[in-house]
Amino acid sequence: MQPRQRQRSRWPNENFALALMTGAIRAALGGAAIGMAVATPLAMAAEPAAGATAHQIPAGPLSDVLAQYAAASGVQLVYEQATLAGMRSAGLQGRYTESEGFAQLLRGSGYEVAKQGQATYVLRKSPAAAPVPGAAGTTLATVTVSAAAMPGGTTEGSGSYAARSSSASTKLNLSPRETPQTLTVITREQMDDAGVTSVDDALRAVSGVTALAGGSIGSNFYSRGFSMQAQVDGMTTPAGIDSGNRSPLYDSAFIDRVEVLQGASGLLAGAGTPGGTVNMVLKRPTRDFQAHAEAQVGSWNERRVVGDVSGSLVDSGSVRGRVVALADTGDSFTDYVYRDHQAVYGIVEADLTPSTTVSASVLTQKDKSRGHFGVPFAANGSDAGLPRSSFWGDVDNRTIRDYTIYTLGLTQQLANDWSLKASYAWQKTDNDIRNFASLSGSLDPVTGNGLSIGSRQVNYVSALHSNVVDIYASGPFELLGRTHELALGINGTNTRDENAGTGYSGNTPINVYTFDPAALGPVPAGRPGTSAHTKTSNFGAYGVARWSVTDALKLITGVRVSDYERRNLVTGAVAPRETGVVTPYAGLVYDIDTQYSAYASYSDIFSPQTSRSQDGNVLDPIVGKNYELGVKGELLNKRLNVSAAVFHLAQTNMAAVDSSVPVNPSNACGGTCYTATGKVVSRGLDLGANGQITRGLNIAAGYTYTDVQFVEGPQKGQRFRTEQPRHSLRVAANYQFPGSQWSLGGDVAATSQTYKSGGTGAAAWTIGQGALVLVGLHAKYRITPQTQVNLAVSNLTDRSYRHVYGREYALYGDPRKYTLNLRHDF
Fewer CB within 10 Å of terminal CB in the chain, N or C? Predict the structure, then answer.
């Protein structure tokens, strides 16, 4: 491929921090009171008793469209499911009063609604209507209720940026207000409005998450200063998210929502890191038929097509299926770089009995690409003035990444409102990388010399195969005259990691002003092959209870006991191995009134180490402890979720070099000895608001302040991971113009400066990125009730900026980018 032509604070001590947290939570409570005062007139303005409001509900099965309208209107609709079987609706666009909307949706169906009570409607046959094929008759024998909450936390079709529930923190299905941790959910509506096509882009919309792009090896995601783990449908995925050549760039076409739980989450994860957990919740089959197709074009030759079909596979609806398929190709603003990926997701659910449902699914994605690591800085870390489109690698490089998840699931309804859920998944990631090349050295921008192309490999292959299991039972129980909730479960992973590579490790000096990537030629034969083969298991059992202390006060307590082992399958060595590690969890939620709750929580997580002390023993695991105080609210008839929290996260037992023991390969440590004296503390503030301010205006806003420092060990007093910003702001919004086919929205991402340092003395260097504000816009026009077009522009001001990854490689962010998406609903 030939390059295209282009135009060229410091925290004094922990006691002070805890005092500050107490003061901050009092301020947050005061802010909550102010918010209540502000929310009241907003609610009155947003919900006039007899006024018309704007709606933008797409076409689909009539029962689904009515459910979406009832949810948007904050009312209940009582009806028999079979009554509307086979009926479809053109959707609803424009301004209608509550009753007018129902009348418009039911026009020609032979049915109408009758209001019963303040917020309940009953579906009935119109008195003068002729019999409607497929209708069940005038009398409703059994009913189902469509309420404001979408079932199971599903966000698809809700038309909202607000999540209704999540089980990400405890396996108990809780609303965001009931969850005593910072929880952010990127809904299907928010992803569609912004034209998001990958989970990476979705996570960049969360203020507390830092996405550090690493080029060919993917991105690393951090929260509160620490890395995060990944889940798919609540099941751990050891491959992670687009990181370390372990997984592909997850496509958003399969996903209903992305749940981001920040802070330590070891209750369900076992071993891991304290930054938090990202849970990607996949789409589920629908009982009624629905389908859509998308075609998208964009900057740098982007071409994308998506098809999504769902519905019942038998007349009774007891067997349902869904298939999502896509193809996505494109180049890059960087010369020679391209991507080409195809993916398919298929799932079948079957009701074996009224209380037993089984499911089977497969998600497979294959990516072929030529990546890069960005553009080098000068030796001292200053900008060398090289074009952001320049490519510093081998044009014969190509990477093929093949990722697949096979999943089996069982849901069994038990007596007394209990249920049992069991899932098993086999996950695999296979990578085949040819002609990989990387830069090394120190660049002299005057002469252009100082860098070398090194570590060129003819071939590198790796395989990461995991067995994942998740089994738990949950339900209510009675104690001391009150009803409580309990969940008991086991989960874990067993992962094999194999890799092998051959190539040539010599360096080829280059001059950055005369370098031609196409002139490198074949990789010389030489270096003998290398390989590694390990097996890692991480299993545990847990229990969590939600105690109803009073009507207003809920106490959540939980504990997990975990076993962890990493074994070298070549040598047979086992290190580390941890057994019986106890992970506690506690949360207290107090309902201040019908809208606001205050909470406090403690959670932790452990991370096994391989470093050894002078006696030869492996150090105890690193432990990340998260303390959090906050206020959460559900405003405007639960259409808007708001939150404010302060947190204190301490990571202890970190390995630090034991300078009292000389380095000696023959000692008990095998060279360098360590002590578990390192400690890092992260303190900060999280603010968030997600949902509908009015029925035509969706918002997702968040601000996070994070200060992370070493408080013990040889680096005491220094900042930890300076490449992550202290201040982060994210705002996204979309407005549906009343009575119009147009909607308009945008987003803002702002971060404070970041930097990274290395070297010592005369060889010291610092790279950095100043404060950054990125702006995006999108506009949507509904051509017909079934067809719409969406234009999205990111980095509207064409800001030039870098990801602070390393001196030799630091990716430029995307310049101004356009995408045009055409969607048709069938």
Answer: N
